[in-house]
Structures are given as structure tokens and as C-alpha cells.
Amino acid sequence: MLVRLPRRAAVAHPSGSSGGGGCFAATQQDQFRRQHQQRSIKWSSRDSATSSSVSTPGAKRFDFNASLPILCHGTAGPQPVSHAYATKGEMVRFLKLMTRGRRMELVCDDLFKQQKIRGLCHLYDGQEAIAAGMEAAMSEEDAVSAYYRSHVWQITRGDNTGVGSMEAVFAEVMGKYTGCSKGKGGSMHMYNAEANFYGGNSSYTSHAQIAQATGSAFAFQYTGTKQVSFAVTGEGGENKGTLYESMNIAALWKLPVIYVICNVKTAIGTSNERGAAMAEYYKRGQYIPGLRVDGMDVLCVRDCTQFAIEHCRAGLGPFVLEMDAYRYHGWTMSDNGVTYRTRDDIKLVRSTRDPIDMTKQRIIDAGWHTSAELNAMDKEVRKEIDVALRAAMAARPPPLEALFDDVLIEEVSTRAVGLRDSRVVDVGGPCDGNVVVDPLLLR
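Above: the chain's sequence. Below: its structure in C-alpha cell form.
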């Protein structure tokens, strides 16, 4: 049965523009806003939620890599731009987060070689400082939409608990029902809505996380919260139209979104020189300010991310962060990573820029822990991983009756768009694919 509904009134966009037709009616908009504003926003109480300063008790100064300075586009950048401060507690937390991520990915490497992981598997080892440093600057209420290289993001956002745990990641990549996506998503589709982590998006969807994160930013602005949305992607996806369409609307409406471009220089297997006419990705926003960040230095990542967040929370619009980073594995496990770069290249980065080694050395130089004590911490992380892996391997795959769970098989309404109008029509009973359109809509 078709039910003709009155045309919904267009509502002005928060920026003052019409925002196009098909918006919420005024009463629906107000209800939507009140509903979300009533939710208590609890900002993170973690010690590392804000950067330490010279006045923070127990904080020490750590210099950034002088050969890879912070570069600015349309902004003066964080001050100071040459160094950061951190406490013992912050540095130890960073080390544990990154070590946990590194060890987890190395186990995934082994599982893939044992054929316990099927399909594509993209590993994050070498890039751990990006997730750890960004998370230190974020609120728990901020949202992250990432690309397919997101195992480490899953446990960083989820604080290694519940579906955000290493056990849930191991289970997911092995197709087990206790996985974060019930074993149906696999390596590329991590997800944890409770932690405001929205995947895990394939490159074949034209990097859907970019538009998705921009939409989240619109929702935050629309409902009047102070949340910030992050779109995390690699440099290989920055020549696609999705990015520029998203940046354009974000700049027009001053949306609180940060576009994070993890630049490992080789994309899937093509160097920046061959694939990008302009590889200074922090300038890709043109009319959007940006920073080039040392993505292997967790403190540099933290301070630059906090600067970008403050920009967004102040209502100044979007921001771009280019993370100059490196991945030790190839694009995926089926890529040995040495057909478009040499083993010496990888060895050089490991020996001079490794984020975990850098953090360990800073802790030792500060006199906070000895090398032996840090090795003991590493062993504790290995034990955590062993426990998580055993639990994941003992789990069962999804039962047969779960085959059609989470699959849309029935619609109660659909939209029919005419030349001059937009209506909502109800379709009685299960949708069989033959939707009847009211001919009056096409008058």
C-alpha cells in the first residue's frame, strides 16, 4: 500500500546556507538536537589526554627529529615546533600501546602464513606511533573512521577491552564468532561503535571513510557537541574525488573533521613520484590548513593532533595532518614489499626511525627505566598476546543460523525522487525488489 506523505520542509543548514532539500523538518531537527545534547559527553580522564608542558610536574623535554621538522600550511602550527614534554607515565603508556600493536601484528603475520587468516591481511607494524599519539590527544567521544589497515586502531580505540581487545582482533581475522564483527568482516573490517571507531573500510569503496568521517563531523556540528571526527587514510587514496568533495563541503560548512594522511611513500606499490603530481599532502586541502608531521615520533604526533583538535573545537573548520611514516610489511601479506623498494631501505628506517626503539631510548635517557626493565615489560605484553591468541583460536566460527544476521532483507519504507518533488512512500510487506512508485510523484 502506498501512503502519500506531505512534503517535508527544508531546514536551513547551521552555517546559514540551505544545505539542499530533503533536510529534517524543523520539529524533527529540534528533537534530534535535544536528544543528542542530553547525552552526557564525558571527556577522557586518561593521563595522556592532553600534552604535558614544561610546567607539568615530572615532565621532561624530548627533541623532535631535526631532519624532519614540522611543516605548516596556512597555520603557524603547535608551539614549540621543535620539541615536546612528557611524563614517565605517558611515555610508559605509549611504549606499552605500541609494543602491544607491534607484537599483535607479528602474530597476524604468522597466522596468515599458517593459512589461519584467509583473504587480504594488511599489517600496521612501523606505524604504531600514529594511532598511539593521536589517541593520546583525542577524547573518547571523538570519532575515527579508518582504512583497512586498522587492527591496531581497534585495540587503541577500545583500550584492549571487549570487542576492542586483541582477542577480538585475532578472532575476527580468523573468522571466529567472538570477533569484533562476528567473524564476518575479517582483517579489513574492524569495528567498535561503542568506542566511536567506525572501521575498517576497503580501498575498493573509494575510501568510504573519508566521506563517512565528514558526515560524522556534520552530525557533531548539527547537534552542537564539541566532538571531532577523524578520517584516516593512506597517501594512495589521496588522488580520488571523494577526498576533494569531502574537503570542499567541510571547508564551506566549517565542519570539525581532521583528514589524516599516512604517507608511507609507496601506496600499494607505486612511489609518490610516479603517482602524485604534488606529494606534499599536508597542502592538499589548499584552503584548509595542514601540518606535515613525523609520524614515527609519538610525541610529535600527539602535539600536532592536539593542535588540530583545538582548531576544530574552536569552530574554525577542517584540518589536514600528513603523517610521514613507513610500513615494514608490504601493502598486504601477499606483497613482499621489496619489488618497489629495497631491503636496505627498510633496514635503514628500522635502525634510525623505529617508533618503539625511539620511545625506549627516551625512557632510558630520562633515567626512568633501565633496558632490562623495559625488556621485562615486553615479556609481559607477549604473555598478554599468548592468552588472547589461545582464546581466539579456541572460539568457534559463526553458526549457520547467523548467516543472514545483519543482512537487510526487509524494508518498511523507501524514497522515491521525482523531477520536482521528494516524498516518502511506504511499501507494505517484505520488499521483493518491485517497488511501485506513485505516478503523482512524476507529474
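The radius of gyration is 23 Å.
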